[in-house]
Amino acid sequence: MVLSNKKNHPSALHEKPGISPPEIISPIAVENIKKIRKVQPSSQELVGGILAGNITALSRAITLVESTNSNHLAKANEVINACLPHANKSVRIGVTGVPGVGKSTFIEAFGKYLTSLGKKVAVLAVDPSSTISHGSILGDKTRMEELVKDENAFIRPSASGETLGGVARKTRETITLCEAAGFDTIIIETVGVGQSETAVHSMVDFFLLLKISGAGDELQGIKRGIMEMADAIVINKADGDNIRKANLAKLEFNRALHLFPAKKSGWIPTTATCSAITHEGISDVWKTIEQFLELTKENNYFFEKRKEQNQYWMLETINEQLKLNFYNHPQIHQLLDSTKKAVQNDETSPFAAAKLLLEKYFKF
Ligand SMILES: Nc1nc2c(ncn2[C@@H]2O[C@H](COP(=O)(O)OP(=O)(O)O)[C@@H](O)[C@H]2O)c(=O)[nH]1
Ligand SMILES: [Mg+2]
């Protein structure tokens, strides 16, 4: 009885066959989109786009720079060479400091201040550890919420790579592309661990060291080399109860900086305090950089340093390529493991083994 009832009275879910709806996505459109996606823009098209300030073209070219595919790299080189005459008209600022000091928050506040002055700001990062942790990329994006939305700002997280040299080369080339796209202020954040500061120092005009106040032991644990590289030391988080301590830290750093030999630039490094949260002192950091630019352009140091940096990067690229070529050579790759073991077991000296491998490599 139940069954027959169901037959006569179809369930509420039953639908009468009506007019069938048109397909939402036409298969022809899908094919067309696929075709467009496959057609990569030529290097001339990319260059044209970049010079017109097109962000999509800029991002695509950076992706080529970051690629490991040799065709992509060849194309990237074409694009970079065509962009070079249009690059160079910028100020490049490096920002370093230990994790947690507030670099990303500072860059957000500083970047917003610069765009309010009508500047076009590109933010890049050198973080060779990001391939492992991925942490800083996520951190940066959330710390720079306002700057991400700013149409006069461009934020590109760190290129991934196995070596600092690789990441640094990609960042160097990305600077050229950003400048050709019309970005006049390039900010490069570095994680403040390992050797990344040295790499960043060698690609910027002005090097800013961010610090926070400690418990009166400001100078402990700070690497001498980093203080020597700094053009300005800025004590961040100078807000709330921290202001007094930050001012004391500033005095202490000021005293310490005077013990270093004079810089080739003729610039005397400055100390200041700021708060990336309240924005107190942020505009003063820019004033300092302007004074630095005025001095170093007048005494020509600015231009000389950029020339030196170009040479340095040529040599670094050669070193990097030679190393990669050696270690990626299939026969060397094979021999390396057994030779390493032989060295470990004292069967041969490290120097003799290295010499043998190099001799073999140059004969291949
Ligand atoms: N009170 C205060 N906190 C800050 C300031 N700048 C950054 N912070 C906080 O410090 C933490 C680390 O900041 P972040 O920008 O990620 O540091 P980074 O690792 O150096 O990039 C975050 O919780 C920020 O909100 C500041 O000027 N004042
Ligand atoms: Mg950060």
UniProtKB/TrEMBL annotation:
GO MF terms held by the record: hydrolase activity
Leader sequence segment: none
Keywords tagged on the record: Hydrolase
InterPro entries, alphabetized: AAA+_ATPase, GTPase_ArgK, P-loop_NTPase
Record region (Disordered): 1-20
This protein's record includes keyword Transferase: no
Occurrences of domain AAA+ ATPase (ranges): 89-240
Enzyme Commission code(s) on record: 3.6.5.-
SMART domains: AAA
Domain of life: Bacteria
Recorded family membership: Belongs to the SIMIBI class G3E GTPase family. ArgK/MeaB subfamily.
Protein name (record): Methylmalonyl Co-A mutase-associated GTPase MeaB
Record lineage: Bacteria, Pseudomonadati, Bacteroidota, Flavobacteriia, Flavobacteriales
